[in-house]
Amino acid sequence: MTATNLADRGVDLGRHPGSVDDFASSVGTWLRENLTGEFASLVGRGGPGSEHEFFHRRLDWDRHLARAGWTCLGWPTEHGGRNATLAQRIAFHTEYARADAPARVNHLGEELLGPTLIAFGTDAQKERFLPPIADVSELWAQGYSEPGAGSDLANVSTTARLEDGRWVINGQKIWTSLAHVAQWVFVLCRVERGSTRHHGLGFLLVPLDQRGITVRPIQQLTGTSEFNEVFFDDAVTDADLIVGAPGDGWKVAMGLLEFERGVSTLGQQVGFARELDRLIDLAKATGAASDPDIRRRLVSAHVGLQVMRAHALRTLATVDTGGAGGQASVSKLLWANWHRELGELAMAISGAPALIAPDHTSEGVVNDITTPERVELGPWQRLFLFTRADTIYGGSNEIQRTIIAERVLGLPREARP
To answer: Signal sequence span per UniProt (predicted)?
Structure first.
């Protein structure tokens, strides 16, 4: 990943050239014309805490996007992408969020694994896996966290050994996003016996539909199940399905995390802005806006959103992947704490009625994937409960602050066993 100044490419993030404006206009027009008919019911669906909503219809939507050429925008054209500029990719995510288009189901493949394979994978791996990611015919899950490691990613204990031309995998992953609906999972595990920390790791591509893998959905506070436990009991994958050399797993895993905190964060912030706008409308409707403390918290939320955007633009202007090391950690701290506080503010504005689940069922087929029985919550209740996890998943606040302390401020490293 090399630092690149966008000005050298003629890209001004504050005042886009006409070509970027035209691109954004075409995205907005296409979304307005296509979020109709069978897809009209998907507007605003599938967000945080609502991943169960219309899953299969959202999968059809993702495939519809792919057929129209709106997936894998930043990928090189030879791999099925559009080789879009950074400014164009930002424009797409921004317009997508403004349209309140449905949450994507192919994010892990398109935005994380695909770019990782392009950067680190073999030609055979690219030929095998990139096309079904681009056309959304195969979905991916992420096998990073473990019960005994949490956000300490280098402390993984899942192992893999080469045996008769295959990797044999044993161990357990937890908080494995979307494993219950995916066909494949990328797994960070130990491939060198006796290795510790970030040494001796491998990054394996593993099929989920096999006897040696058990997937157990985890019921969240929202009653839904985006995350899973995944057990590997002599699970197998081919010897050539390791990305990078054995022992290079940490480098590949860190490369993937760089992609995770890329341009899609700006689209996320547009979504946050829409949530804040709706919350302001709710405060006005309920009379909560007359409370000085509520007004102060709404203003603080608005200011926090502007700080997030300024930080993201500054980071994107200097680093291709959206910021590395300390910059990425600052970004995670900013948005995770902001969103959690927004959930708390939503409860304060909603008042006592927010403590009771609505006595209604949603129109149409909402839950079209298997999940445990649950109580249907209102949107603000789901937001509040789901954002309890924002400061934990994707690297907890404590881990992010440690990264900033050690890598940015140069403070002494924390003692580790």
So the answer is: none
